[in-house]
């Protein structure tokens, strides 16, 4: 796990606080900041810091944004990134970003109770892709859930429908298999809501991956296919890096301070009338620039997670999408209670206002 530089800041109350100064920020694995907390986050960016409460020991810590050069957003509805002006602010500050955009189709299955209509989410995806670039908006169909109403054919058909609409708007499609039995809280929530779920077995995963590759070939999709946090090595499917040092480099390679932090050197080949030749193992940026991967997995993440280190600023039990399979909320009631507290303390140091 990364140890970020630590210095002191002055908080909103004039008190000196020890703070971390992360270069890369995750916003956030724990909650949907773009959908519900954009105003708060923009305010905290302008203030220069926010606070975060550790879910395991309840200790509050402080995060300064002074040195932040890159932000990874995670969302099912990132439209407020445009509406609140966060993207404008980041552009002026020369802070780059990309979005892990979960775009599922569980309409009518009562699994995602508080997300916008699918057509609106697809349109938001396209708008963001045009603004940030198609490599900066990553499509996630995550998680893949089996129920009495949803089988493998259902999922593949829905993926095909979305995939056809996203042609030319993204480079990658990421998926994972719902692992419900391993999360007792999720299992209890689904049973309480009378959702007749079914866990995936190894053979089903292999079959699904095979059919995904066949779908990609049949539709001539250019999407790279990847799984998130899965142990299985599936033919034709890569292991994803949701926080990906190589993708960060492709997007922000002109940021010398960020490249220095990543220990990545940008190389250049001479312009040519013909196709330029790049060294073996080089990752191409454009027709003249390339680099070699220096991505390093964060040892503090799950064993099958390939992400590099970033400082996550979110808090659990604060997302009010009300997805039945959510692992990040203790309960719907706790999420709503925390959200109400947030609304009463909009500009607080923490998301919850506590």
Description of the molecule:
With 354 residues, the chain is of the alpha/beta class. Helices cover 31% and strands 20% of the residues. The strands form 4 sheets. Strands 13-12-10-8-7-6-3-17 form an 8-stranded parallel β-sheet. A 4-stranded mixed β-sheet has the order 1-2-5-4. The protein has a 3-stranded antiparallel β-sheet with strand order 14-16-15, with helices on one face. The longest helix is centred in the middle third of the chain and has 18 residues. It is globular and about 60 Å long.
Quick tags:
354 residues, alpha/beta, 8-stranded parallel β-sheet, 4-stranded mixed β-sheet
End-to-end Cα distance = 26 Å
**Distinct helical segment count:** 11
Classify the helix fraction into a percent range. Answer: 25-40%
Number of domains: 1
Q: What structural class do the secondary elements suggest?
A: alpha/beta
What proportion strand?
15-25%
Question: Which whole number gives the mean pLDDT?
Answer: 94
Strands side by side in the biggest sheet: 13-12-10-8-7-6-3-17
DSSP strand tally: 17
Low-confidence segments, ≥5 residues, pLDDT <50? Answer: none
| Rg computed from alpha carbons, rounded to a whole number of angstroms | 21 Å
Shape: globular
Please summarize the sheet with the most strands: 8 strands, parallel
Order of helices and strands: EEEHHEEEHHEHEEHEHEHEEHHEEEEH
């Amino acid at each position: 796990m990364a140890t970020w530089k630590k210095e002191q800041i002055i908080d909103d109350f004039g008190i000196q606080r020890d703070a971390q100064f992360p270069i890369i920020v995750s916003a956030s694995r724990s909650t949907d900041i773009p959908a519900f907390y954009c105003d708060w986050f923009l305010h905290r960016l302008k203030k220069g810091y926010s606070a975060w409460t550790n879910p395991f020991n309840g200790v509050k810590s402080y995060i300064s944004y002074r040195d932040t050069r890159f932000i990874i957003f995670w969302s099912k509805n990132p439209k407020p990134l445009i509406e609140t002006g966060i993207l404008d602010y980041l552009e002026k500050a020369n802070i780059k970003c990309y979005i892990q955009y979960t775009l599922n189709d569980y309409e009518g299955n009562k699994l995602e109770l508080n997300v916008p209509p699918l057509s609106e989410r697809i349109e938001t995806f396209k708008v963001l892709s045009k603004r940030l670039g198609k490599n900066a908006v990553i499509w996630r169909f995550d998680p893949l859930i089996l129920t009495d109403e949803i089988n493998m054919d259902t999922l593949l058909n829905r993926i095909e429908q979305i995939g056809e609409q996203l042609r030319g708007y993204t480079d990658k499609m990421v998926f994972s298999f719902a692992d419900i039995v391993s999360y007792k809280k999720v299992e209890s929530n689904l049973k309480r809501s009378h959702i007749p779920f079914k866990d995936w077995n190894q053979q089903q995963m292999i079959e699904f991956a095979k059919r995904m590759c066949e779908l990609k070939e049949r539709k001539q999709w250019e999407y790279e296919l990847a799984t998130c946090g899965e142990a299985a090595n599936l033919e034709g499917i890569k292991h994803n890096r949701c926080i990906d040092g190589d993708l960060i480099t492709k997007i922000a390679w002109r940021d010398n301070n960020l490249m220095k932090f990543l220990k990545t050197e940008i190389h250049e080949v001479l312009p040519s009338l013909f196709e330029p030749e790049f060294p073996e193992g080089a990752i191409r940026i454009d027709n003249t620039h390339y680099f070699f991967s220096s991505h390093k997995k964060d040892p503090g993440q799950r064993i099958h997670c390939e992400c590099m280190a970033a400082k996550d600023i979110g808090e659990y039990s604060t997302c009010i999408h009300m997805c039945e399979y959510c692992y990040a909320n203790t309960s719907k009631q706790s999420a709503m209670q925390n959200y109400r507290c947030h609304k009463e303390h909009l500009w607080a140091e923490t998301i919850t206002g506590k």
